[in-house]
Amino acid sequence: MLKYIVKRLGLALVILLGVSMIIYFLIRLMPVDFIQDKINAINQGGATVTEETVQAMYAMYGLGDNSFGGILKGYFTWLGALARFDLGTSFVYGLPVAEVIVEHMGISFAIALIATIFEFLIAIPLGITAATHQYSLRDYFVTVLVMIGISLPSFFFGNMLKDLLALKLGWFPASGLVNATVSYTGVELLLDYVRHMVIPILTIVILSIGARMRMTRTNMLEVLSSDYIRTARAKGLKESVVINKHAFRNTLIPLVTSMAGLLPTLFSGAIITEQVFDLPGIGNIALDAMNRGDIPFIMGYNMFLALLSVLGVLLSDLMYAVVDPRVKLE
Amino acid sequence: MEENKTPVVDTAADTETPLDKNVRLMSPTRMVVRRFFRSRLSIIGLLMVVGLFLFSFAGPLLYTQWGEIELDESGKTEYAVSETTYTVNGVTYTLRQTTEKSLKDNFLAPPSAEHILGTDNEGYDIFVRLMYGGRISLTVSFIAVFLITVLGVVLGGIAGYFGGWVDNLIMRVSDVLMCLPGVPILLIISTLLDASDIDAKYRIYLLMIYLTFISWTGTARLVRGQILSLREQEYMVAAEAMGYSTGRKIFKHLVPNVMPQLIVQMTLSLGSMILYEATLSYLNLGVKAPYAAWGTMINIISTNQDILQNHLNVWVPAGVCIVIAVLGFNFVGDGLRDALDPKARR
């Protein structure tokens, strides 16, 4: 087991190296130029910038040489700093990238965690009823409903909910995280956060229930057709006992495994939803950074995502062996 | 396929006639088709998809009142009311002034006989732009799915058949690509496209082609996994003994056996491609104005609160079209999965 984990971690390192190389080269080729924007801003302010200052600025940010060799050198500089656990300094915020990520991750994580909890609470019972009543009206109804959820584009549905629940009915605030006009403290502040998060969370939950519900339904159907369920019924057990005690426990295997795969979803932030509701989460910040050419931040954010997805895959493989004693890792 | 025919007893037949006249022979393909059409959801899905295709491709030929980028310049008069309050000798007077402004473009017109769904903030006819947007969305997703499948089948087939270092190389590359964060990467590529002076009309095609380079991994894994298990079967030993060429073994004996899963995956990914394209266009990274795409038509509400609240006819129809398209492909994909699954018999 330990040998397997070490081997997988080594492989993960190679994967991350590959990912970082691709992303770095793509970013350096991006036409968005942070320095140029900055110089334009200075010029607009009335001051003039000499050619030497421009060159010095490019050199200072390490963007002086845009040839292949220059980019390669920049990449290794970045990699060298990373080896010392330094993700560099964000151009836009002037703070260490890691700090910016940690600062904005909290809100994304809170939204994702609450949404995931609701997703499981709603999707699993729905999946079980759909499976136990296969091909019935109830099954069709639930299936069609969650399929519509899967098919909704997040930007469209988010805006629809925003229009209806916030702007038309006025039940919840339309955007942002806090009410800027009132300064709340303590419990009231927390309640204000909650009010602002209701619609974004509702959006995410409705869009994500479908996949989980269908997964539960498929697993449940498979388990229900196995021999030991027939035995349990033949013993004369009540149907509720058969479903809830015998069948459901085995459908938990893939569900628990898939929870490890949630790792990236929990921390990476929902870019589109955060953009629609103007939430200061990590996804929205990253979108902004990309539009402004904040290279260190984009690199840091994307590597963070890649690391999470590598770890997610590894964790779900390990979980599989933990949950299901029949699985042997080699 | 001849020897695969399965006899199905026709219940309506009488017992007098000899048995072979009483049985209808059905090929596996016909059985799949029959199972597919037995599910009501698949039929609904098929109708949705076919309907959208007709709407997008035949629609502009039949409804020619307006073009995709044809402005309605019939003009529009806008009234602005300003209110001023004066207090003279303790009596308050309110002066209401109405200014009339004549504009060239008839924008944000409500639905009428002339504009079935009204016009948008520029003065384009929304109904017509829905059709042209559908053309782009559907074409782009079909191209992307086709390319992804070709790349995935070739690379997955090679990896699964040859194994060894070839397999290792292809799978490690796919590991790396799988860990690339999808939306951020597309954002970066899209800004790269902005730099090259490519025609606004074609940049979405180029973008989707880049997308295929990072999206073939799922298909490749599916094909590889299937081929790994099929490779060990007796009929492949027979093919080996017959001395068939490698290409023939892979593409005539192995790949057709992966087809069922492949078709299902292709149909389902059509839906996700439409969502991808719409999201990119919504972020103003896909199809750009003045050309229409469903996502582009919704983009306006991210900056214009008035349209979001008061002009639902501008953005809701485009969203409904996206949902119909994705839902249709999902229903068809599900129906195909059930129909092609030899274990699931109803």
Give me the secondary-structure topology.
The complex is a heterodimer of chains A (330) and B (346).
Chain A lengths: L1 H28 L4 H11 L6 H10 L7 H16 L13 H36 L4 H15 L2 H15 L17 H39 L2 H8 L4 H22 L2 H6 L2 H6 L5 H11 L2 H29 L7
Helix pairs in contact in A: 1-14, 5-6, 5-8, 5-14, 6-8, 7-8, 8-10, 9-10, 10-14
Chain B lengths: L5 E4 L9 H4 E4 L1 H11 L1 H23 L13 E13 L2 E13 L22 H37 L1 H16 L2 H14 L7 H13 L1 H14 L3 H8 L4 H37 L11 H6 L5 H6 L1 H29 L6
Antiparallel strand pairs in B: 1-2, 3-4
Helix pairs in contact in B: 2-13, 3-4, 3-13, 4-5, 4-7, 4-8, 4-10, 4-13, 5-8, 6-7, 8-10, 10-13
Give me a quick take on this structure.
Chain A has helices at 2-29, 34-44, 51-60, 68-83, 97-132, 137-151, 154-168, 186-224, 227-234, 239-260, 263-268, 271-276, 282-292, 295-323.
Tell me about this structure.
The complex is a heterodimer of chains A (330) and B (346). Chain A is an all-alpha fold and 330 residues long. In chain A, 76% of the residues lie in helices and 0% in strands. Chain A has helices at residues 2-29, 34-44, 51-60, 68-83, 97-132, 137-151, 154-168, 186-224, 227-234, 239-260, 263-268, 271-276, 282-292, 295-323. With 346 residues, chain B is mainly α. Chain B has one domain: MetI-like (MetI-like fold, Orthogonal Bundle), CATH 1.10.3720. In chain B, 63% of the residues lie in helices and 10% in strands. A two-stranded antiparallel sheet of chain B has the order 1-2. In chain B, strands 3-4 form a two-stranded antiparallel sheet. Classes of the chains: A mainly alpha (330), B mainly alpha (346). At the A-B interface, α1, α6, α7, α12 and α13 of A face α5, α6, α10, α12 and α13 of B.
